[in-house]
Amino acid sequence: MKAKIVITPKKAVVDPQGKTVRNALAQMGHQGIQAVHVGKYLEIELAGTDREAARKTLDEACHKFLSNPVIEDYKLEIE
Amino acid sequence: MNFAVLQFPASNCDQDAIHALRDVFGHSARYVWHKETSLGDTDAVIVPGGFSYGDYLRCGAIARFSPVMQAVKQFADNGGLVLGICNGFQVLTEAGLLPGALVRNRDLQFHCEHIFLKTVTPDSPFTSKIPAGKSLKIPIAHGEGCYFADAETLARLKANNQILWQYCSVTSDVTEGANPNGSLLNIAGICNQRRNVAGLMPHPERACEPLLASDDGRWIFKSMITALEEKSAAKAA
Predict the structure, then answer these.
(1) ipTM
(2) What is the pTM of this model?
(3) Which of A41, A70, A74 should one mutate to test binding to chain B, selecting the residue with the greatest count of B CBs within 10 A?
């Protein structure tokens, strides 16, 4: 099984990377870009086929370790 | 006094901490490797600066799960003094021993320079001996030192007098211009509610000798040493 995790900064946290990338895109001539947020993407390969168990384990891992709930949100997808 | 200075893979300010404690202050200080499960006979723990685990995933995110951190948590729960410096501060926030988090510097640049600190309160074992009104000249060297906490946490820090140091000008004015990394409320260092665990991004261990352009850092260690000596005297009485 494969799990895909996207970790993004919380809205309340200032994201200077995102702003810098947005400005660079504007300078390159791309129009209409309102905001950019830079996050992290993880791919985790799992043994077995029990998606429920995998989700439970990974949710805990995401909450305790892979993301920092003080400053980040995460989205977990299991294929 | 016995100081324990932790060592994680890629800690790199551990030797400076040992040097300050042993050679400048004349106390016993030893390295404790991150795999140790016991701190032994320790009066205070220093979590040093560096790039533990390469800052992989997030600064301090992996170090916080090192075996020694269980012993540090126990030590802190029992009232022991713990000081996290730079990466050490990051490790303590990741471990939940201090509130909030440290994120990338607002201007995205690594800042390696001297800054000034205003001591917000003398009411802690880390600040009690700092001369009132004196701005401390201390070096910083970090790319992820921007302190963040949500509004509720910031309100609590203020209400409980947990903000120990703020970035300021040489004349102790807490201004945006004096803030090197965008930290909310210019927060450079805080303590926990119990006031026995503290963290700060600047490096006091690199400011204990005049040769290093400032010895203002010694006031922080003097405060800790005094607190430990008073505790020791109280026990003996």
Answers:
(1) 0.90
(2) 0.96
(3) A70
